[in-house]
Amino acid sequence: MLVLLRTLGFATERVLGTGGSNSFHGSVIVRIGEQRYLVDPTFLAEEPLALLSSERSTAGAGPLKVWADTDGTIRWQPPQCRFHAVFRIDEFDCGFETFREHHRLVEAGDDEHPLARLYHDKLFIRRNADGGVRTYDNGIVVRKTERRSNIAKATGDHRDLLTAEFGVAAGLVAQIPARFFPQR
Predict the structure, then answer these.
(1) 85 and 20 Cβ atoms separated by less than 8 Å
(2) What count of other Cβ atoms lies within 10 Å of the Cβ of residue 7?
(3) pLDDT digit string (tens) for 105-143?
């Protein structure tokens, strides 16, 4: 995303932070004039989140709402749970090598790295749709709108579900290892 935004002429910087269970997350900030905006699809708002030093800011509405506190803490409501998740920006304007090092640990399956444990045993897909959010979380499908939340166990061929309901290209779904799909 950073390269795309830079190509479009935006002043950007990489940031690195920590979330729940001390997992690392990389993100992008865009600067327009003196104002900084977090632009990160992970946090569901679908619009930039102004980072203000003097007051709390918000973006999005309903299940797509995200907040930023003055200390750099980002809060949002993950669609698969009832509690707010937290992401704290720890390092601004960090280099690409920082991201690569964390990625290498995850790829290698280093059990000391929180993301390696998470992403080596779990398949999580999110799609913003119909004014709400849909998630696939290891065979559980959550559909959440501003007024309703529905949780159901996925049935049938989960690969077809990911293509039809979540819009994941069939070629990508075919590359997902079988261990990520529940055994029948």
Answers:
(1) yes
(2) 8
(3) 666 655 555 554 555 567 777 777 777 788 888 788 888
Q: What is the DSSP string of 94-134?
A: --HHHHHHHHHHHHHT-TTSHHHHHHHH--EEEEEETTEEE
Q: What is the pTM of this model?
A: 0.66
Beta strands in 35-174 (DSSP E): 35-38, 49-51, 57-59, 66-68, 73-76, 85-92, 124-129, 132-137, 140-144, 149-153
- H/E run at residue 160: helix 158-164
Query: CB of 29 within 8 A of CB of 12?
Result: yes
Structure tokens at 84: 């707010």
